[in-house]
Amino acid sequence: MSLKVLCSYSNSFGGGTESVLLNGLPLLHNSGEAQITFADLYSRPSVTRKFADLGLNVRLATSTGSDSVVSGRSGVWRKLDIVSAIPRHLNIAYRLVPAIRASDLVYVHGYKDLALCHAARLVLGTRAPAMVWHCHGLHDHAEPPMVVELANRCARVVAISEDVKEHLVRVGVIPAIVSTIYNAVDPPRVQGASLVGPTSPLPPSHGRKVILVCPAAVRFIKGIHLAVTALRNLPNAVLWITGDESEPAASAYVQELKSLGSREGVNDRVFFIGSRDDLPAVMSQADIICVPSVCREGFGLVAIEAMALGKPVVVSCRGALPEIVTDGATGLVFDPARPNDLAKRLATLISDPELAASLGASGKRSVQLRFTYDRWAREVLSQLLAAATLRRSG
User: Fold this and answer.
1) What is the pLDDT of residues 226-282, one digit of tens each?
2) Which of 153, 250, 311, 366 has the most neighbouring CB atoms within 10 Å?
């Protein structure tokens, strides 16, 4: 008899977590050992439809139809928004109780999933099924409230990299319950999508090398300003930047980047190409993919997708990026704290096409060996099955 698994989801921005779930959950569901029920905590039709189309069981956790973002404001206004959202989230937790009662295991990914499902499990007491938290990373200096206590009430905690695992243990999560399972990509899907061609025109390169920075969110922590500054020393390159610019924080940062580009005299070679649903096709048109994050990256999915396409990558040394990109073997790694280090690494690839091609080929082989979904599904399933035997209660 297969394990009945409730997978809750509350991610506000989609991105890497949603991509991993969309590609990985069907493999778990079709393994014959797990029956996956997907529950979007905010009952967003645009989200639930994606998972229903994959053949998964879908259960609406709430009928509030509310947006997933607690607050887009800052300071005292954000605190007030969070407090005002408490009744709504308690309602979500209450509505989760029947779904959790009908499950053998609860499998969560975001912090809100973790907190709300634990709250729902309290109602069931000793009858509550065990929980597995698949942790996609923590902030450097501001862990969510009670995250350690909630994590330690789980039967298993899965970290998406060794860096995330070390961070969890450092803040107090029990080492014995934490395991590392790297995220994954689907190379045939990425490669196939790259052959379709861009859905909208791309900027001209005028014979220069194209450096592509494609963060999920246009934010300072993604280090885009480092790539703009590096362009000053790379006269034979242009910079393409993807990402949603519509939010206030993103819009303000874009203006800062344009001001920086003006001071550096490179604005004519910096292009903002917006949020793209054709990212593999865009990456296929670039010569180098750059991930210049100044924050701790829990994984770095865009770097893996670029490697799957055989593209040379340059990544920062923050978080898990040096784990997935081996410096000098499958890509190049730079230190954001060292001035001009990024420019030097990019210049190396621009001036040495053979090295760029070699790193791209090595990166592609690395993806096939280390980052496929078949491997991901096997490892995740083993953790779910192990957790189900423990039945830790809230």
Assistant:
1) 999 999 999 999 999 999 888 788 899 999 999 999 999 999 999 999 999 999 999
2) 311
Domains defined along the chain, listed by start? 3-184+372-388 (3.40.50.2000), 187-370 (3.40.50.2000)
* Torsion sign, CA atoms 369, 370, 371, 372: positive
Query: Coil, strand, or helix at residue 263?
Result: helix
The arrangement of strands across the sheet holding 270-274 comes to 270-274, 237-242, 209-213, 288-291, 313-316, 332-334
Is residue 81 within a helix (H) or strand (E), and if so which, with residue range?
helix 75-84
Q: Report the greatest alpha carbon distance in the chain.
A: 66
What average pLDDT does range 356-368 have in this prediction? 98
DSSP strands (E only) in the chain: 3-9, 34-40, 57-58, 105-108, 130-135, 156-159, 178-180, 209-213, 237-242, 270-274, 288-291, 313-316, 332-334
Q: Which two tokens stand for residue 90?
A: 């308690």
CB 211 within 8 A of CB 345: no
Task: Measure CA of the first residue to CA of the last residue in the chain; give whole Å.
Answer: 25
Do the Cβ atoms of 122 and 96 come closer than 8 Å? Answer: no
d(CA 193, CA 377): 22
pLDDT score of 70 = 64
CB-CB contact of 8 with 133 (8 Å) = no
Composition of the chain by helix, strand, coil, percent to 5: 50, 15, 35
Question: pTM of whole model > 0.85?
Answer: yes
Residue 264 pLDDT: 97
- Could you give the percent of the chain with pLDDT greater than 70? 93
CA–CA dist 378, 30 (Å, integer): 12
pLDDT confidence of residue 171 = 93
- Burial, 7: exposed, middle or buried (Cβ in 10 Å; 0-12, 13-18, 19+)? buried
The DSSP symbol for 265 reads T
Rounded to 10 degrees, what is the CA torsion of 235, 220, 333, 171? 170
Name residue 58's beta-bridge partners: 38
Compute and round to an integer the Cα radius of gyration of the chain.
Answer: 22
pLDDT at position 392 is: 43
Q: What are the pLDDT digits (tens) for 286-316?
A: 999 999 999 999 999 999 999 999 999 999 9
pLDDT > 90 in the chain, percent: 76
